[in-house]
Amino acid sequence: xxxxxxxxxxxxxxxxxxxxxxxxxxxxxxxxxxxxxxxxxxxxxxxxxxxxxxxxxxxxxxxxxxxxxxxxxxxxxxxxxxxxxxxxxxxxxxxxxxxxxxxxxxxxxxxxxxxxxxxxxxxxxxxxxxxxxxxxxxxxxxxxxxxxxxxxxxxxxxxxxxxxxxxxxxxxxxxxxxxxxxxxxxxxxxxxxxxxxxxxxxxxxxxxxxxxxxxxxxxxxxxxxxxxxxxxxxxxxxxxxxxxxxxxxxxxxxxxxxxxxxxxxxxxxxxxxxxxxxxxxxxxxxxxxxxxxxxxxxxxxxxxxxxxxxxxxxxxxxxxxxxxx
Length: 325
Hints:
This protein is an alpha/beta fold and 325 residues long. It has helices spanning 19-31, 48-53, 62-71, 90-103, 118-124, 131-150, 187-196, 217-232, 254-268, 286-300, 312-322; strands at 8-12, 36-39, 77-80, 83-84, 108-113, 153-157, 162-167, 180-184, 199-202, 240-243, 247-250, 281-284, 304-308. Strands 1-2-3-5-8-9-10-13 form an eight-stranded parallel beta barrel, surrounded by seven helices. Strands 6-7 form a two-stranded antiparallel sheet. It starts with 7 loop residues before the first strand and ends with a helix.
């Protein structure tokens, strides 16, 4: 049976050169009807490491920026897409998250993942362990977050998380806890998300025409949703499935469309053919993008769409058409 959850939209942003610029951006995101303002848990400024990581320079760290955005808005939800479990002491992060949920009157969406950027780990001096070890740590951390937010005495002993002798404070406003977003792209972490998350954030699929398993980008996106569905069982109907087009351009002009697709091809070092239909590319008129998002919700299950900071204003007409529907 096809499940079509209502659309929600978010903006992922880290760029601001002043407090006023960040406050204004937060209010604009809220006023334009976006559900959530996400930060990113990345830290590299310009330099060789940032170029190796192939990720835009990061301006704002997430926790302080989330709290500031919440303080200057009234309905906007705030979150990080997603915290890396290796960049934070889990017991500390649990308390930071509960504090933001309390002080925002229950507007936190708590994103967490196992980490993925080896160049960033190296640049910051953080050991980059095997995927299995990082996912085991993530699993233990999620259990700790839920225990901390319950207000009950914590007694957790594991391979990575050893916390005992106190109850978590403050209690979050949202019950039983803030929505947990788990992000990733492989079977093990997406299965964990299906079992434990309220929101599943599905990473970008490869930009090659066919991946090492012989799957097109669309087939890979379908496979990832399948991992979540299989692990979630009956829970699947109640999950938000989140993803980002990442490369977005709203225009009716054929030349601008060709230029935008060519830019994606150059950035990802692939051929331009087929990129218009790639699950993480969204280029075209408002009407075309509305239709494409509805198709992708049916095909991939994605109802929660995050766009980049540069697309806030141009994407607003799509939000107006689809949010809540």
